[in-house]
Write a structure and sequence with these properties.
By secondary structure, the chain is mostly helical. The chain contains 6 helices and no strands. Helix 1 crosses helix 2 and helix 5 packs antiparallel against helix 6. The mean pLDDT is 93.
Amino acid sequence: MTDERRERGLKKMSEVYGFDLPDLQGDPFFEVTVDHLFADIWNRPGLSLRDRRLLLLGAITAQGNAEIAEIQVGAALRNGELDAGQLREIAVFLAHYVGWPSATKLDGAIRKVLSKNKK
């Protein structure tokens, strides 16, 4: 991979998560994540970071992945993409499309992140 592509990926990854991440050179999964997902896919034109976050929250909720939802909810709050009310509304909305059990996990992740942020 080119150094420029790696830098572009690390920059976007930091922008998405709201904090800097180390370059884990030699880790094949991390390298594909940075060099392809963040350098290429997250940098494509046509969707804002907020748009991508909303889509990602929907996909994560449909999969019932509360641990990843916590990471994305925290990043959305740190980056100012979504506020507490909007996050809660997302859980209500998704419950009707992906099912109550999956949306309940998202709601729990939202509540957990919001309570950590109040401390």
